[in-house]
Amino acid sequence: MVADAPSLERAAKALASATGPVAVDTERASGYRYSQRAYLVQLRRAGAGTVLVDPIALGGRLDPLVAALDGTEWVLHAASQDLPCLAELGLRPAVLFDTELAGRLAGFERVALGTLVERLLGYRLEKGHGSADWSRRPLPADWLNYAALDVELLVELRDVLERELDRQGKLGWALEEFEAARTAPLPRPRAEPWRRTSGIHRIRSPRQLAAVRSLWETRDTVARTRDIAPGRVLPDSALVEAAVRNPPDEATLSGLPVFRGRAQRRMVGEWFGALQRAAALPKAELPDPAQQHDGPPPPNRWADKDPAAAVRLAAARTALTAVAEANTLPVENLLLPDLVRRTCWQPPADLSVEGVTAALREGGARSWQLGLTAEALAKALATRPE
């Protein structure tokens, strides 16, 4: 366990003098905290053993570790989940191997870490604390054992998957995917995140939508300030219920489910104030009931909005499914579904294989994906309604 500067220096020296790839994992407190920061970083390298780093105790200053890992290959499972919080600590891989992504490309239907380890290495990993509150201090010993197991066999799993990908002729594909994952930009914040409130389908009027938005924004401010998961401040169901009921005063609001609780009664003034602000908005500032998209509409509306596009999409899905099955790949890894939809909704002017290749490349498709899909997609885009 590394929780002070001297132990961090010792761990960094051990890792720097060790050999081979470094197995890396993190533990966050999703569902408990607002932030997605890492509350524990697990590292393992041949010759150094396993190191469990407490970035909270270290104030987030891991400079010796950053220097020790510079230029090394990192092995992670489902890297996109861990890379953002590692980057917050200054930790960025020079080379990446993602065992979950490797498993997908190798054609395994179930790619959870425990499943792959059991199938390919013959060990069964202990489970039980993946959804724990990792912001808790001190961390219990059995939690630390669980965390250490996540990197115990990661390098061995990497080696087996690399050989399997090479056997299938897919190692080059995987290396392209790993690099794309390593260099992917951080996700952009959603334009209107409040629209993802669970149960918002019950809302009918713009005024009620404004109430949900106002409550959501108030809750988000409270959650961010206190570093508490928003759902623990006030569940989505309570936001929707208050918007639908439209209580006339604080006392009525306090009588609604969830709002009767002691914590909510203390904050009833804030929640009712949010409802009042929504009620006072002029009509021009009310949210549009129809959510604005920066891309094509949901596919189930294509037949009405653009029948030709619906035909193109159906043909593309059929063609890509055939290519995926022929190569033992998940179709979503063959080509991103969003890129397929955007290309079918608004095809390039040049429908030749070269023109479609250029459009897909601009949309972020990798070389191996272009080689497998461009010709099939070009044919699909030329499909016309009967």
TrEMBL record:
It comes from the Bacteria. PROSITE patterns: HRDC. Keywords: Hydrolase. It holds the Pfam family DNA_pol_A_exoN. Transmembrane segments: none annotated. GO terms for biological process: nucleobase-containing compound metabolic process. InterPro entries: 3'-5'_exonuclease_dom, Exo_C, HRDC-like_sf, HRDC_dom, HRDC_dom_sf, RNase_D-like, RNaseH-like_sf, RNaseH_sf. One of its GO terms (molecular function) is 3'-5' exonuclease activity. Coiled coil: none annotated. Residues 205-285 form the HRDC domain. Its EC number is 3.1.13.5. This is Ribonuclease D. It comes from Saccharothrix violaceirubra.
